[in-house]
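User: quick one - fold this with coenzyme A bound?
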Amino acid sequence: MSYKIRKTEANDIAWVDSLTQTHWGSDFVLSQRQKVYPRELPGLVALDEDETRIGLLTYRVVNGTMEIVTLNASRQHQGIGTQLVVGAVAEAQTLNLGVVWVVTTNDNLDALRFWQRRGFRLVSLRPGAIGEARRLKPTIPIHGCYNIPIHDEIKLELTI
Ligand SMILES: CC(C)(COP(=O)(O)OP(=O)(O)OC[C@H]1O[C@@H](n2cnc3c(N)ncnc32)[C@H](O)[C@@H]1OP(=O)(O)O)[C@@H](O)C(=O)NCCC(=O)NCCS
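Assistant: Sure. C-alpha cells for the protein plus coenzyme A:
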C-alpha cells in the first residue's frame, strides 16, 4: 500500500504533541539525557488517501548526523514505518548527513527487528540508562513490550 509522506507543517503541531503524549507518556522524550520536544522538531507525516495522519517520524541534526527521535505508525505492518524511514534517509542525503541513528530500549524487540531489517546496525548499549532516565521522566513504565522490564538503551546506526 502506498501512502503520501510530507514534511510536518505548523498545523500538525497539536497532533504531534497529542501523539507524543499518547505514545511516549509525556510531551517530551529523552535523548542523550535531555528533554526533547517532538513538536519542536522537523518531521515527516504519513497520510492515507483521506489525508488522515497515520504515521509520524521526527528527527534532529546532531553533530553532522541525523537522529531519528520518534517513529510511530498508527497501523502496523502496512509499510508506513518503512516509508517514513525511507523519507528520513532521503532527507539526510539532501542535508549531506552520512549517518542516521536511533535509540531504542531493550524491551522493544519489534523495533530492533524493524531497524535491523532496514540496514541499521547495533552500535552501542547503555546498560541501566532507563533507570537514570526515570529520574527525568517518571512516566517511563517499569515493564515494556512483551512485559519485559525496561532497563537499557540500544543505539542503532545506518551509514548512508
Ligand atoms: C516500529 C514501527 C514504527 C514499525 O512501523 P510499521 O509501519 O509497522 O512498519 P512496516 O509496516 O513498514 O514494516 C514492518 C513489517 O511489515 C511488513 N509489511 C509492510 N507492508 C506490509 C503489508 N502490506 N502487508 C504485510 N506486511 C507488510 C514489512 O515488510 C515489515 O516486515 P520486515 O521487517 O520483515 O520487512 C511500529 O511498529 C510502531 O509504531 N511501533 C511503536 C513505536 C515504536 O516502537 N517506535 C520505534 C521506536 S525506536
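One thing worth noting: The chain is about 30% helix and 35% strand.
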